[in-house]
Design a protein that fits this description.
Distance between the termini: 50 Å
Radius of gyration: 17 Å
Largest sheet: 5 strands, mixed
Shape: globular
Number of domains: 1
Mean pLDDT: 88
Structural class: alpha+beta
Number of helices: 5
CATH class: Alpha Beta
Low-confidence stretches: none
Oligomer: single chain
C-alpha cells in the first residue's frame, strides 16, 4: 500500500488546540457522531492541559495544512512494574483519504512515541463488524479476543 504523498504526522502539544479541534471534527465525521465530538467540547484551558500532560497522546495526520486523520491514546502507568502501556482510544481517517496508509502511519508514529516513553505494549479495541479496523489492527498486531464490560458508576446494587 502506498502511503499518501505529503502526509505528515505530528504529535500535538499544549499550543495545538486548533489542530485538536480539527482532529475532533475528523472523529465526529468518521464515527457519524458529530454531536458527541462537537456539541460540548471542553474549554481551551482543558484541551491545553490535556495536551500538555503526560497521560494523553494526540496525533494528527496532515495533508498540507488539512487534518485528514487523528489518533487519541492514553498512557496507563502500571503498578506491578515500572512500565506503561498505551491504549488507543480513537483513530479515524477522513473518508476521502482511507486506504492510503494514513491509519498505518498514525500507528507507526505512535509506536515511536511509545518507545520514547518506555511503554511495553500498545493496545486497542475494535467492534465486531468493523472490518476495516479489524483488518488494520490484525495487520499491525496480535489479536486477543476478550470481553468488554461497561460499569455505570451511577447504578448501585448487585444485578445477580
Amino acid at each position: 500500500m502506498k502511503i499518501m504523498s505529503g502526509l505528515q504526522i505530528v504529535q500535538l502539544g499544549s499550543d495545538d488546540s486548533a489542530l485538536m479541534h480539527s482532529v475532533l471534527d475528523v472523529f465526529g465525521e468518521a464515527f457519524d457522531e458529530r454531536e458527541i465530538y462537537g456539541n460540548e467540547r471542553p474549554s481551551e484551558a482543558y484541551i491545553q492541559g490535556l495536551l500538555a500532560g503526560d497521560s494523553f497522546i494526540a496525533l494528527a495526520a496532515l495533508d498540507g495544512e488539512q487534518v485528514v486523520g487523528g489518533l487519541a491514546a492514553y498512557v496507563l502507568r502500571k503498578f506491578e512494574q515500572e512500565r506503561s502501556e498505551i491504549y488507543i482510544y480513537d483513530l479515524a481517517v477522513e473518508l476521502s483519504c482511507r486506504r492510503r496508509g494514513v491509519a498505518t502511519a498514525l500507528v507507526e508514529s505512535l509506536k515511536e512515541v511509545a518507545k520514547t516513553l518506555g511503554a511495553y505494549v500498545i493496545f486497542v479495541q475494535a467492534d465486531y463488524g468493523d472490518d476495516p479496523a479489524i483488518n488494520l489492527y490484525t495487520k499491525l498486531g496480535k489479536r486477543e479476543d476478550v470481553l468488554h464490560f461497561d460499569i455505570d458508576p451511577n447504578v448501585s446494587g448487585n444485578s445477580a
